[in-house]
Amino acid sequence: MRIALIFFCLMTFLVSCEQSSNETENTAVANQDTAKTDTALNLQSYSNKLKILVKNIDGDFRGISLGDDANKVKKTEDTSDIQEEGSNYIEYMINYAPLENAEVRYLLDADFSVSKIEVNIYPKSKASQDSLFRELEGYINGKYNMDSSGPGSNSIKKWELPLSNLLILLNKMDTEKIHDISLIFNYLNRQSALKKN
């Protein structure tokens, strides 16, 4: 009887320790996720370059989400930045630093809704490219609360967000004189997006 009581107390203690350990781990993970999200949603902690490029934290990029109406794009973006407008796209040139700019192209579907966002960023140097690429990756990781995946390359990052039906690609293109960055927001499943509309 005494052995059974000791065994029962020991098992109760071990189960209690394991639950406490799991709760501590879960709290640590939750705190880490919250910290990542808080950092991403606070643009003040980023460089002026990123603040100008991202503009605001709403939507997928610059306050615009896939599926938004073309009129919302025109209201959200500065009309002085418009570079070109066609029947299926609106393109803006964003000067985010001296000698550095980005083309933001909103591709439109037949209903004049945003079907894809393409951003081509033109840093002035390799160092500027590396810094901005890391900052964009960190911002997207935090905003969507998940780390990028990819083919193990430091120059290609990918986020697949099934609940949002969103695919984000971040690509660093290097040659001897060109140090561009490409950022694309697209539907993960275009058919699913068509059914919603």
Task: Give a verbal description of the structure.
A hairpin with a 4-residue loop joins strand 6 and strand 7. This protein has helices spanning 2-41, 48-54, 70-76, 126-143, 190-196, and strands at residues 82-86, 89-97, 100-108, 114-122, 156-161, 166-174, 179-187. The longest helix is centred in the N-terminal third of the chain and has 40 residues, at 2-41. By secondary structure, it is of the alpha+beta class.
Layout of strands and helices, then pairs:
Layout: H1 2-41, H2 48-54, H3 70-76, E1 82-86, E2 89-97, E3 100-108, E4 114-122, H4 126-143, E5 156-161, E6 166-174, E7 179-187, H5 190-196
Antiparallel strand pairs: 1-2, 2-3, 3-4, 4-7, 5-6, 6-7
Helix pairs in contact: 1-4
Give the structure's gist in a few sentences:
The protein is α+β, with helices and mostly antiparallel strands and 197 residues long.
List its traits.
197 residues; alpha+beta; 7-stranded antiparallel β-sheet; 5 helices
Strands of the biggest beta sheet: in what spatial order? 1-2-3-4-7-6-5
**Helical residue percent band:** 40-55%
Structural class: alpha+beta
SSE pattern, N- to C-terminal = HHHEEEEHEEEH
